[in-house]
Amino acid sequence: MQNQNIDLIPDNWLNLELIAENLKTKDTLYYNKLEYLSDINSIDTVNVIVNPEINNFSEIEYKCRIVNGKDTINYARFELGNNEEFPFLPFDSEKINVTGKEKLNLEAKTYNCTVVELYDEFNEQKAKLWLVDNQPGIFAKMILQKKEFNNETNYIFELKK
Question: Looking at the whole model, is its pTM more than 0.85?
Fold first, then answer.
């Protein structure tokens, strides 16, 4: 694994127990999600509810649901804790690059964040994560890029509350 500037990652983000302790106080997280589909040149925006679940302090599963009016549909799941050294990774990463610190203004709230870029082995998945420095397990923003066949899909999640 190639890593750059990992010493900038806050210690609380490197400890799965601290992440789990913080998430115990967070029943539900709310995000805006923007999805861009390159093959049909389409942009879709929806609200996403995320419920973190802690499984014996060995992994944390984020269950995501899309809210459309009064309807809610299961959307996706991702887990943290699969990598002992970097428990905050949402997928296996070949390269981690910490690009620095950034203040991010979202929904009338400012977050002090550490910005991390991730790349998988075949460059089929990329991510840019804004880790809220004093809230381990809370991503202020995520940009996820997936390539499948000749199509590329980009997802942007921004924390609402």
Answer: no
Residue 93 belongs to domain spanning? 2-159
- Is there a contact between 105 and 115 (Cβ–Cβ < 8 Å)? no
Q: Are 75 and 48 in contact (CB under 8 A)?
A: yes
Question: What CATH number corresponds to the domain at position 134?
Answer: 2.40.128
Of 94, 104, 110, 129, which is closest to residue 8 (Cα–Cα)? 129
∠ CA 141-115-23, nearest 5°, is: 55
- The domain tally of the chain equals 1
Tens-of-pLDDT digits for all 161 residues of the chain?
578 888 899 999 988 888 888 888 888 888 888 877 666 666 767 777 787 877 765 677 777 777 766 666 666 666 676 777 787 777 777 788 999 999 999 987 999 999 999 887 776 788 899 999 999 999 999 898 887 777 777 888 889 87
- The first and second tokens of residue 136, run together, are 């381990």
Cα gap 75→10, rounded to integer Å: 30
